[in-house]
Amino acid sequence: MAKVLLLSILIASFVIPYSAAGEPDARGALRRALLRMALFAVAYGLCLRFVYWRLL
Predict the structure, then answer these.
(1) Residue 22 and residue 10: Cα distance in Å, rounded?
(2) 33, 30, 29, 39: which is closest to 15 by C-alpha?
(3) Number of domains composing the chain
(4) In 10 A of CB 20, how many CB atoms?
(5) Predicted structure pTM score
(6) Please, are residues 44 and 9 in contact by the beta-carbon 8 Å criterion?
(7) What is the pLDDT of residues 5-46, one digit of tens each?
(8) Do the Cβ atoms of 1 and 56 come closer than 8 Å?
(9) Cα angle 27-10-43, degrees, rounded to a multiple of 5
(10) Which of 42, 34, 48, 39 is closest to 5 using CA atoms?
(11) By residue range, what is the domain housing residue 50?
C-alpha cells in the first residue's frame, strides 16, 4: 500500500506540471498548476485520513 501512495505522489508531481505546460499564458499555467497541486494535496490528505487506515 505504501508503494501505491508513493507512486501517486510521483505521478502527480509529473502529470500536473505537464498538463499545465501546454498553456499559452505562463502565469495562467502556473496558477492552474498550483491550484491543481493544492487540490491534490487536500484530496491526498483526506484519503490518508479516511481511506488508508481502513485498508490496513
Answers:
(1) 20
(2) 33
(3) 1
(4) 19
(5) 0.75
(6) yes
(7) 788 888 888 888 888 888 889 999 999 999 999 999 999 888
(8) yes
(9) 75
(10) 48
(11) 2-55
